[in-house]
């Protein structure tokens, strides 16, 4: 029989019993729908994280103190914290590939000013910081090179801090006090939102690193050095360059491990994505179980259908159908059943994911790949669970089948 | 039937059925049941033969072997000049499709399926590529049995006699060498029985070879030859002395009914 004919015959016999067909497909409908919704949530989270990592700034490289986590035994980060402001300055002057370098000195402290008190993180950075993080101001300006050199007490604040201290006011030109040192607010950063981990990026105060180092914290070690290259292609080479410059400055012998870690955004993204990928996989696995259960439902009904239609099978055999024709007919029937259920499931899943996204504000993402894979999975469930009933149908003896009551 | 098969009746002397020494032994647990014990049967083209016998006489077994549904344990069977006792399952399926037409006691029509699609069914399994226009052939077969106005009716919208005529159309659509009818009137009242017998006789007149299994002696009288089985052997094989015409019996019945009504 021609394939189109086979499918036609299958569709006709499926449509003869609409209610049962619907109930049989329900398992697959729910299974495929669940897979689509779950994967949509997982992939949505993944793409959100990716977008946020891009949001950190383009071509960014982060140098942190401490040994590399990939190699050897990790020593306590503090014991090895030998990154200095001078390292950052050296990178800036010696590197060929880096277009921007900024140290980042962190000093958690109480911010006093305007309406009151706010505990926030003060970051001592260079002017390049804005370039690296790709983070412009929405009003005012960032401090310039001369202000950094002269250790001016100026600050640029994030929107969260601005709202806490100066609600409804323009903070530019206002005074704030950090550890009793008065600073002038000269700029307000644009809003960045939360990081993938959920910390508020806008809860921040930026000041010249020279000022923070000498007038606030007094620490000579810094939390990290941020850098960026002109193009993404240079990132890998720039990481090597940073390594060799810092190793030389720290006087490390060849056999000694790095006392710092150089990471780029891809590494950061990979870590974050790995987490969400595991989550997506887990959700998909749970959802596929319901698809499997749906398959068992199909097998159940196909077995019932084979014994109900024993006489029909006998008749077909008597009229010249070969066993292989009967096998194929029932296999196509169960496959059509599951694919039909799959299609409905895709429809419901897409609708469900969209509605869920609207209601909860979660990012959901449905890729064509997800749809095709879950449809393919549904089809193979139909073939797999339809095989045994079909075999039973094909093995029937025409004489006994015709006599069956 | 169409003209070509009518011609065959006169020019082709190969018997449709030539069976010698047919035996069939069933193994049931430890026991052996010999359902057929050496049956020789020859049926010429264009004959209409009734096979009779009580239950357990082996007539169903013989029917199944003649219908290529069951192979004999020993003996040879030539259908239309071709040895079929040695064919495998798939080859037998093809023989059934191309050379045989079946009519059953219980009609065996597909429910919720139009008459036309029921008649098309055997053409779906035709591998020889002879049948190019299933729809037209099925329509012609239904017209032949007088159901040209019922093409789209489903079995539950048809009377018993009409359902059996659809089944006969289904058996005719492949232009078989042999029509095998297994108790075709077993589920029908006497009047419908006559209608179906009239149709079978008409088809036989046009050259179709018919083998009919029945336990009703009145029905067997419409055949030209009766083969009676007992205990797996042929007890009697003789021509019908005064073959009755189902058409005239039907006419008689109708006038009687009208007389009673008036």
Concise description?
Chain A has 405 residues and is α+β, with helices and mostly antiparallel strands. Chain A has helices at 3-15, 18-55, 85-94, 128-133, 145-149, 159-165, 209-217, 235-249, 265-308, 310-318, 323-360, 368-394, 398-403; strands at residues 60-65, 98-113, 116-125, 137-140, 154-157, 175-178, 181-189, 204-208, 224-229, 260-264.
CATH class of chain B: Alpha Beta
Order of helices and strands of chain B: HEEEHEEHEHHHEHEHEEH
Radius of gyration of chain A: 33 Å
Average per-residue pLDDT of chain B, rounded, comes to: 90
Unreliable runs of chain B = 1-10
Q: Give the amount of beta strand of chain B, in percent.
A: 15-25%
Spatial strand arrangement across the major sheet of chain A = 2-3-8-5-7-6
Strands of the largest sheet of chain B, in order across it? 6-7-8-3-9-10
Beta content of chain A: 15-25%
Tell me about this structure.
The complex is a heterodimer of chains A (405) and B (262). Chain A has 13 helices and 10 strands. Chain A has helices at 3-15, 18-55, 85-94, 128-133, 145-149, 159-165, 209-217, 235-249, 265-308, 310-318, 323-360, 368-394, 398-403, and strands at 60-65, 98-113, 116-125, 137-140, 154-157, 175-178, 181-189, 204-208, 224-229, 260-264. The relative contact order of chain A is 0.19. Mean pLDDT of chain A is 84; it is low at 68-80. With 262 residues, chain B is an alpha/beta fold. Chain B has 9 helices and 10 strands. In chain B, the strands form 2 sheets. A 6-stranded mixed beta sheet of chain B has the order 6-7-8-3-9-10. Chain B has a 4-stranded antiparallel beta sheet with strand order 2-1-4-5, with helices on one face. In chain B, helix 7 (190-205) links the parallel strand 7 (178-182) and strand 8 (209-213). In chain B, helix 4 (115-124) packs across helix 5 and helix 6 packs parallel to helix 7.
């Amino acid at each position: 029989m021609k394939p189109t004919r086979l499918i036609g015959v299958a569709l006709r016999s499926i449509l003869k019993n609409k209610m049962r067909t619907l109930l049989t497909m329900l398992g697959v409908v729910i299974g495929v729908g669940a897979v689509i919704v779950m994967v949509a949530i997982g992939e949505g989270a993944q793409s959100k994280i990716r977008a946020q990592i891009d949001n950190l700034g383009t071509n960014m490289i982060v140098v942190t103190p401490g040994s590399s986590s990939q190699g050897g035994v990790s020593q306590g980060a503090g014991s090895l914290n030998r990154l200095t402001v001078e390292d950052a300055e050296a990178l800036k002057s010696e590197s060929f590939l880096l277009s921007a370098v900024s140290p980042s000195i962190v000093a958690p402290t109480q911010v006093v000013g305007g309406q009151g008190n706010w505990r926030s993180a003060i970051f001592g950075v260079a002017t390049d910081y804005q370039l690296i993080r790709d983070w412009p101001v929405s009003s005012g300006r960032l401090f310039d090179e001369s202000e950094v050199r002269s250790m001016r007490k100026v600050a640029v604040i994030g929107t969260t801090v601005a709202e806490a201290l100066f609600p409804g006011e323009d903070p530019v030109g206002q005074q704030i006090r950090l550890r009793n040192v008065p600073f002038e607010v000269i700029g307000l950063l644009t809003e960045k939102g939360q990081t993938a981990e959920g910390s508020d990026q806008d809860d921040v105060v930026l000041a010249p690193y020279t000022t923070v180092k000498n007038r606030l914290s007094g620490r000579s070690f810094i939390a990290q050095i941020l850098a960026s290259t002109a193009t993404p292609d240079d990132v890998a080479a720039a990481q090597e360059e940073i390594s060799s410059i810092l190793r030389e400055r720290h006087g490390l012998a060849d056999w000694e491990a790095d006392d710092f870690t150089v990471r780029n955004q891809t590494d950061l993204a990979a870590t974050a994505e790995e987490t969400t990928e595991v989550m997506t996989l887990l959700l998909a696995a749970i959802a596929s179980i319901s698809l499997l259960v749906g398959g068992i439902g199909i097998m159940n009904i196909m077995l019932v259908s084979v014994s109900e239609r024993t006489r029909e099978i006998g008749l077909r055999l008597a009229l010249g159908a070969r066993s292989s024709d009967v096998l194929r007919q029932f296999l196509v029937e169960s496959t059509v059943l599951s694919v039909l259920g799959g299609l409905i499931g895709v429809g419901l899943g897409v609708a469900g994911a969209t509605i869920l996204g609207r209601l909860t504000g979660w990012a959901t993402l449905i890729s064509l790949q997800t749809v095709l894979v879950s449809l393919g999975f549904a089809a193979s469930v139909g073939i797999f669970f339809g095989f045994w009933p079909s075999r039973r149908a094909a093995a029937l003896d025409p004489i006994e089948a015709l006599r069956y009551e | 039937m169409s003209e070509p098969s009518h011609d065959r009746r006169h020019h082709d002397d190969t018997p449709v059925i030539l069976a010698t020494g047919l035996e069939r032994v069933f193994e049931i647990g430890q026991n052996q049941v010999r359902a057929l014990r050496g049956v020789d049967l020859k049926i010429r083209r264009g004959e209409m033969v009734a096979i009779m016998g009580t239950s357990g006489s082996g007539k169903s077994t013989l029917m199944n072997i003649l219908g290529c549904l069951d192979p004999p344990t020993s003996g040879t069977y030539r259908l239309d000049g071709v040895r079929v006792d040695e064919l495998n399952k798939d080859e037998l399926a093809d023989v059934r499709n191309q050379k045989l037409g079946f009519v059953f006691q219980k009609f065996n029509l597909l429910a919720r399926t139009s008459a036309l699609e029921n008649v098309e069914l055997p053409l779906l399994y035709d591998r020889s590529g002879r049948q190019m226009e299933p729809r037209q052939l099925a329509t012609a077969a239904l017209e032949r049995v007088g159901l040209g106005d019922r093409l789209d009716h489903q079995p539950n919208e048809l009377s018993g006699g009409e359902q059996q005529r659809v089944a006969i159309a289904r058996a005719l659509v492949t232009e078989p060498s042999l029509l095998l009818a297994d108790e075709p009137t077993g589920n029908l009242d006497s009047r419908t029985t006559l209608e179906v017998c009239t149709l079978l006789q008409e088809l036989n007149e046009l050259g179709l070879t018919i083998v009919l299994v029945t336990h009703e002696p009145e029905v067997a009288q419409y055949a030209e030859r009766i083969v009676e089985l007992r205990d797996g052997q042929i007890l009697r094989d003789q021509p019908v002395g005064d073959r009755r015409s189902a058409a005239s019996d039907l006419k008689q019945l109708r006038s009687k009914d009208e007389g009673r009504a008036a």
